Amino acid sequence: MRIAVCGTKGGSGKSTLAGLLALCLNDAGRKVCAVDKDPQWTLTTWLQSVGGKRFLTPTHYKDSAPQNSTLLGEWGGGLEPNEDCIWIEDYPPASPQVLLQMLGKGEKPHDLLLIPCRPALADIWSIRSFLEGLDGYNGKVRLVMNALDNSSISKAGSIESLLKGIKTPRTKATLSRRACYSYAMAGGWPALDEKAKSEVLSLALEIMK
Q: How many structural domains does the chain have?
């Protein structure tokens, strides 16, 4: 399976989402290859600091940057996205047009585009225009509500109202604003409390169906 985590706005939680999913799936015994397309290299630095292995020999697609890839799990044999091997790619903020160009460089299509969205008006306005620009993309796209808190805008009714008219389906699973998600950048999966692990696991199970 090949997943792209993307969006048009910095700070939406793309790298955090990609990293949490990679750690969760690895903890569940899956092989994960995390490909960092963002020049900040946040995902690379994070996963390699908690035991990920540097990936030096890309076999999947020609434009891959080997120094930006990290392997999680016990590896053997070929490196191709399939039932046993999950590729999670973290893309930099980009317009829909630029993103589609970047996505088109791979030799194989993505199985899923994941787009995180925080509960802030500016983020929701931005994501609305971004998704409109992706209209017609021939692939599966899902919006993930991220960093939800106890504010009124994070309530289900408010989100439904603000996202009214957006055709892109949302995942049922959401991520809350939790300090331990930041702690995971230093301590990996064990640094998360049980509620945080449950949130990420619910999302992982949903997207892997």
A: 1
